[in-house]
User: Fold this.
Amino acid sequence: MTSQVSSPADQADEANDADQASEAVLGEQRAPQSDKPGADGKEIRRLDRVIIRFAGDSGDGMQLTGDRFTSETASFGNDLSTLPNFPAEIRAPAGTLPGVSSFQLHFADHDILTPGDAPNVLVAMNPAALRANIGDVPRGAEIIVNTDEFTKRPMAKVGYETSPLEDGSLQAYNVHPVPLTTLTIEALKEFGLSRKEAERSKNMFALGLLSWMYHRPTDGTEAFLRSKFAKKPQIAEANVAAFRAGWNFGETTEDFAVSYEVAPAAHTFPTGTYRNISGNLALSYGLIAASRQADLPLYLGSYPITPASDILHELSKHKNFGVRTFQAEDEIAGIGAALGAAFGGSLAVTTTSGPGVALKSETIGLAVSLELPLIIIDIQRGGPSTGLPTKTEQADLLQAMYGRNGEAPVPVVAARTPADCFEAALDAARIALTYRTPVFLLSDGYLANGSEPWRIPQIDELPDLQVQFATGPNHELADGTEVFWPYKRDPHTLARPWAVPGTPGLEHRIGGIEKQDGTGNISYDPANHDFMVRTRQAKIDGIEVPDLEVDDPFGARTLVLGWGSTYGPITAAVRRLRAAGQPIAQAHLRHLNPFPRNLGEMLKRYDKVVVPEMNLGQLATLVRAKYLVDARSYNQVNGMPFKAEQLATALQEAIDA
Assistant:
């Protein structure tokens, strides 16, 4: 869905000030801005932001429910950030803690950066969902519980000896007991569905109820359901009926005396056309845009792996843009095909996660030797080995930097938000095409599956990525003969010419054995090898990347340095500290190899440098080794993103130390 947002540029600072105040409230919903009666006589309370978490069994459709609520929220014009969280098992045992799936959405009338630390509203579809999530819910929050599932056996599965709805353990919360299953079945009687078929629509009943509570649009969801189940019109209409029944229940029941409004974020965004976008979708669109701007066909050679598979799925839909996708039999075949496509003159891409990077490492080294443009997208997840396939982590940085045999330097680019994945893809393509090198593009599960508003760029805002293929001889021998040397380099970029196979007179040898400088012939000469190794390193070191920008309005002595998906939580934490009167500087790296040229100078300006990472200190290790600064790590490897309050506390301790 897209929406038009027009806001004067001079209001951006006011919006930022509003968010700083919001972030100063540690994980709590701010007081209502105004109250008014609704058309149904119930009170409507105006809020500036809300955090909702849908939770249930992995078969309850929580991801779909969250996606639909998010889409309607995006079309309404709120700023938003999401956190899907689901089990790794294809179908975990029903009603168990390992089988709980959740979707958290933070939406607001101002600029926000994270999915929120703690939900203001929890929708719990069964006892397992309640037990798995209650620890994150602050006192006074709303909990909507599907009472039909709170029978003896489901409660016993998760360790409830007595019903938490009756034993007083939920007194600190505003609990709304709703028999979602019974109400859904009753609403769908006229459709002649079996009980099991009708029960499947209870997530739509819950969605309708929440849509009423927060005045979300409904037309888009009804159109989506009719489209999704177009081949099963009875099921489509049943889901629409359940959705409407949930809305009507909220409007008529006495248990929900208040509904809430969160106004559009009209003063947050620059003027433009916006849509909700996930990280993997933004990467896909960025790759397509790069291929069009380079006037090259896009080729993806990939093997399915969580959480990168969505890129393969999406790109396969866009053959009209000259995209070719190849689902290979394994990771090695996927990157081999992509490298072959690069040799043939395509913008070549391979996608994977950490375990796949390990399998692709030899071919990445071959791409370094052949000096061909290739984008390797690593959607990082919890490791080692199979690890936590559906959980996030950013622990592949050192693997991307050094995970190959020999001296095989590769540029590394990292996206920082779901929408930023689009720009990161364009940047990775620029480097690969300009410098004739494989490039690592790092994202992670948090960015890949999370979503936020994205302003659709105009064509004239995109970079020109066109390249010139070699067309004829480029070197003159001593006897005056003109020949083609495949490793004769551009004096500025050190990139070798890109010769498309089949071009007359440009025949040359390729392979993994060391090349002779210039000619590309096989060479075992020690001096030549030393020269080629140093030249390939110099090419990477010479890549033009922007200088690092440091946000330091108050002359702080402590700098927080981040990379990748920690951007949102770090920035939210910094805003909280500044709102409390604490000076702190912030910088965030997109380019991790090579580093920005001014990074060392910037780091040495500060007494303390703190590096939060979802690993055990990989960027901190690189920074300490290269710049000899006492970078202090703050680490987390629990499969979840940082919370803003958690980081604010850690950074305050660093300031005070």
In short: The two ends are 48 Å apart (CA to CA).
